[in-house]
Amino acid sequence: xxxxxxxxxxxxxxxxxxxxxxxxxxxxxxxxxxxxxxxxxxxxxxxxxxxxxxxxxxxxxxxxxxxxxxxxxxxxxxxxxxxxxxxxxxxxxxxxxxxxxxxxxxxxxxxxxxxxxxxxxxxxxxxxxxxxxxxxxxxxxxxxxxxxxxxxxxxxxxxxxxxxxxxxxxxxxxxxxxxxxxxxxxxxxxxxxxxxxxxxxxxxxxxxxxxxxxxxxxxxxxxxxxxxxxxxxxxxxxxxxxxxxxxxxxxxxxxxxxxxxxxxxxxxxxxxxxxxxxxxxxxxxxxxxxxxxxxxxxxxxxxxxxxxxxxx
Length: 312
What we know:
Elements: H1 4-24, H2 43-46, E1 64-68, H3 73-84, E2 90-93, H4 101-110, E3 122-125, E4 128-131, H5 133-143, H6 155-169, H7 171-180, H8 184-207, H9 209-212, H10 225-231, H11 233-245, H12 249-255, H13 259-269, H14 272-285, H15 289-296
Parallel strand pairs: 1-2
Antiparallel strand pairs: 1-3, 3-4
Helix pairs in contact: 1-14, 3-5, 3-10, 3-14, 6-8, 6-10, 7-8, 7-11, 8-13
Protein name: Glutathione S-transferase, N-terminal
Organism: Ostreococcus tauri
Pfam families: GST_N_2
């Protein structure tokens, strides 16, 4: 019988293959631009997952520019939100290892500290420049919402969904500790803390089970910003930790009886918006999204264990 890890990888692979096929057939007007490619249109429509909206020669982005890097997990949140809400926007891709003066100037115009290290995402909408992924995500969810398309959470499910997102995100700094570990003792301590964090996130999903009424997402049947805040790190945890630390996320969840978290990961991993952005990451980087993620986090790893690591 296939393991939960193998089933999860197979499910994602099938979804990604379908997404690539649809992206390959998409209309040229729906392509993202870097500096000289036409404006980005409906992402989900480009995949054939929703009806494409058309006005005359096609819907064009009007006054909205999303500035990001292809592989940043924090900026990925806002990209997913724009995709989910079928928003029109121009995509500006930046290389964070070779920042341009124009990018640095744009960031400085909006950052609380104009001298801070420029980062993504940056959203420019109707003349206003915005920074910080959580704030931009909230703005997108409120501003681009329309009838039949909402990713905002509310009520009891919103409470449990946000509690889950906040709890799951506590694993993120521990993820970086695992990558930055320089000896077995430090790595072992980080692994233990990471697994403890996963157990807490699983517990929150269990606590909110009645409110979710069997729905697969953090707020039940509705996919919301609570899912988005947490889910961009799921593929990074799976791919990057397996590569650099021989850590199998799915097997760890199964061994620690985190079935609620497993089900949530299955649900968000096959979300069409995620599959779409994986395809775009591959198109923009010229690599598989797995390799792109591994390369993105390479700068945090200075030591590799000679022994395989398996969480306990």
